[in-house]
UniProtKB/TrEMBL annotation, chain A:
Residues in NIF system FeS cluster assembly NifU N-terminal domain copies: 8-136
Alphabetical list of SUPFAM superfamilies matching this protein: SufE/NifU
InterPro entries in the cross-refs: NIF_FeS_clus_asmbl_NifU_N
GO MF terms held by the record: iron ion binding; iron-sulfur cluster binding
Lineage: Bacteria, Bacillati, Actinomycetota, Actinomycetes, Micrococcales
Name this protein carries in UniProt: Nitrogen fixation NifU-like protein
Gene Ontology annotations of biological process type: iron-sulfur cluster assembly
Coiled coil: none
UniProtKB/TrEMBL annotation, chain B:
Native source species: Microcella alkaliphila
InterPro entries: Aminotrans_V_dom, Aminotrans_V_PyrdxlP_BS, Cys_dSase_SufS, PyrdxlP-dep_Trfase, PyrdxlP-dep_Trfase_major, PyrdxlP-dep_Trfase_small
Protein name: Cysteine desulfurase
UniProt keyword Transferase present: yes
UniProt lineage: Bacteria, Bacillati, Actinomycetota, Actinomycetes, Micrococcales
Reactions the enzyme catalyzes: (sulfur carrier)-H + L-cysteine = (sulfur carrier)-SH + L-alanine
Family of the protein in this entry: Belongs to the class-V pyridoxal-phosphate-dependent aminotransferase family. Csd subfamily.
């Protein structure tokens, strides 16, 4: 695979064209993140279970490059798949995903994402070799982290 | 060294473009062009962001450190004298380049600092600093500062802030649907209340020359100061602030084949010597007591502290480099490259060139929007074959918004750019939509 094909894997192209988890509703608590370099935007919400302990859904809206949009879509897909399998994320689970994702993306291709844990989102591993694009891929995940931090501060 | 004062060419010139042998010789002077990227020779088409440096510029800067480094305007040892002479020679070179007097040339760190310098000096005058001499430049409520809708953020935000600090109002001349400054609208914006007109010489997004021949007389009739952002013109055409009848002109050395960390502010001597300083400290004073200080005239008044000595010397070498090439020949070559670029892009389906319809001379630069593909993704396809192009809003968000784009992909040429490199860029842009699975006119 050429460098370019490693970056733009078919999964990423598909998610950027038909995004999952797209659409916010009134009442969602959101975090809005921007990449000022290229104008990528993601606004993201975490939808919690009734008892407030687990993430049942990740919803978002945004515009920008295919990497930023596909990353948000893959993140929402990952949350939905884990919730469907009865493993909806606790705040700690979510933080662990964000930390691993960040570590892999900042590794300059040294640390791939674990396919067992990240599923299709592991296709984003290729982004880590493209330093200028890491911020694009991080956008949705940073929004989720921002929501977690705010939630902890309010508790 | 002598600098030939060529007349203002306005992008149209009768000189011959560089021959391929001459171009080879020019290219050989840029060591970075020997680099490979992803197995392809580097095709550097981002000169509008920053130009590459010929060896002689790098060497001039290094030689100063090797042989003559000392603080300038301070102390009396031999090295200090030599360094001062080299630094002031650099100022003289810039002054001849602009056809102005030496003491009208202020070294700054870049164009952004130059624009802030003039905005803050006027702001300080508005606070009453600088006494009676500065009072004519003071702004108050009811006064208006005018910019255009296509300005780089560096020529917009300092004026927004100055307006906020002084109570003046910031107004702007809109651009029309083609991306050109709307000269008809300008007559309704520039008027009796206008105190400052700040405008760029050449747009960093469309590459088009601004209609200074209309705007400057309007500002003059209103008695306003004219501040010119010459960042994108200085590398391409002879810059003559006096002929253009502007009071202030700024540019960045790094876009003119010079080092980073050095810029120039030209200001009319009467203006500079009437305004209070922006930054203050050593090397700019005559007498200091515990209560206050008296300031030297320009240029020292606006160059407090130890200046950018090596960078100024590097910039002077860069100016000698472009002067030896000759602006008439640079413009003739770049004119052909620009025409080739626009003609090539016009053939491509699903590609929009921002400002394509502007009826004005332009530099060899084009910003494109690829239908259905974000600029960031398009730029990646070019990078993959070794082509360095800029993606983003190029620090001109309002213009992008006005033209219905959030970001674009910009190709910009320099003196080392070849027709083949332009063709490679056009071919790579042609392949972008295909790579992302979009083909044909309606895909
Ligand atoms: C038109 C214009 N004005 C101002 C600037 C600011 O220049 P600098 O970043 O070197 O201060 C630039 C370059 O980015 C520019 O293109």
């Amino acid at each position: 695979m050429s460098g370019l094909e490693q970056l733009y894997q078919q999964i990423i192209m598909d998610h950027s064209k038909s995004p999952h988890g797209y659409g916010l509703t009134e009442g969602d608590v959101t975090s809005h993140q921007r990449n000022p370099v290229c104008g990528d935007e993601v606004t993201l919400a975490l939808r919690w279970s009734a008892d407030g302990t687990r993430v049942e859904e990740v919803a978002w809206e945004g515009s920008g490059c295919s990497i930023s949009q596909a990353s948000a879509s893959l993140f929402a897909t990952l949350a939905a798949e884990d919730a469907d399998a009865g493993n909806a994320w606790t705040p700690d689970d979510l933080q662990a995903f964000i930390d691993e994702f960040r570590e892999a993306l900042r590794s300059r291709g040294q640390i791939p994402l674990d396919e067992e844990r990240f599923g299709d989102a592991a296709a984003l591993s290729g982004v880590s070799k493209f330093v200028a694009r890491v911020k694009c891929a991080m956008l949705a995940w940073v929004a989720a982290e921002d929501l977690l931090t705010r939630r902890a501060a309010e508790a | 060294m002598t600098l030939s004062p060529a007349p203002y060419a306005g992008g149209v010139t009768e000189a011959a473009p560089f021959s391929s042998a001459e171009l080879e010789h020019i290219r050989a002077q840029f060591p970075i062009l020997r680099r490979d990227l992803h197995g392809h020779p580097l095709v550097y088409l981002d000169s509008a962001a920053t130009a590459q440096k010929p060896s002689r510029v790098i060497e001039a800067e290094a030689t100063f450190y090797w042989e003559a480094n000392a603080a300038v305007h301070r102390g009396a040892h031999t090295l200090a004298g030599e360094a001062t002479e080299l630094y002031e020679d650099a100022r003289g070179t810039v002054a001849r380049f602009l056809a102005v007097n030496d003491d009208e040339v202020i070294f700054t760190s870049n164009a952004t600092e130059g624009l802030n310098l003039i905005a803050y000096a006027i702001g300080n005058a508005s606070l009453g600093r600088g006494g009676a001499a500065a009072a004519p430049y003071a702004l108050r409520e009811g006064d208006e500062i005018v910019v255009t809708e296509l300005e780089h953020h560096a020529n917009l935000i300092p004026w927004q802030e100055l307006a906020a600090r002084t109570g003046a109002t910031l107004r702007y001349i809109p651009v029309d649907d083609s991306g050109a400054i709307d000269v008809d609208a300008a007559t309704g914006v520039i008027g009796a209340r206008t105190r400052i007109l700040a405008v760029s010489h050449v747009s960093n997004v469309t590459g088009a020359h601004s209609p200074l021949e209309t705007l400057v007389p309007l500002a003059r009739a209103a008695g306003a100061l004219v501040v010119l952002d010459a960042c994108q013109s200085a590398p391409h055409l002879p810059l003559r602030p006096r002929e253009l009848d502007v009071d202030v002109a700024v540019f960045s050395g790094h876009k003119l084949y010079g080092p980073t960390g050095i810029g120039v502010l030209y200001g009319r001597a009467e203006l500079l010597n009437a305004l209070p300083p922006f930054l203050t400290g050593g090397s700019m004073i005559t007498t200091v007591t515990m209560e206050g200080a008296e300031y030297l005239p320009a240029p020292q008044r606006f160059e407090p502290g130890t200046p950018r000595i090596a960078q100024a010397i590097g910039l002077a070498e860069a100016i000698r480099f472009v002067d030896e090439l000759g602006f008439d020949r640079i413009a003739a070559t770049e004119h052909q490259l620009g025409a080739r670029l626009l003609a090539g892009l016009a053939e491509l389906p699903g590609i929009r060139v921002l400002g394509a319809g502007i009826d004005a001379p332009r530099v060899a630069l084009a910003s494109v929007v690829v239908d259905g593909v974000h600029a960031h993704d398009a730029g990646q396809v070019l990078d993959n074959v070794g082509i360095a192009a800029r993606v983003g809003h190029h620090c001109a968000q309002p213009l992008h918004r006005r033209l219905g784009a959030t970001a674009s992909l910009r190709i910009s040429a320099g003196v080392h750019t070849t027709a083949d490199e332009i063709d490679q860029a056009v071919a790579a842009i042609a392949g972008v939509r295909h790579f992302f699975g979009l083909t044909g006119e309606n895909a």
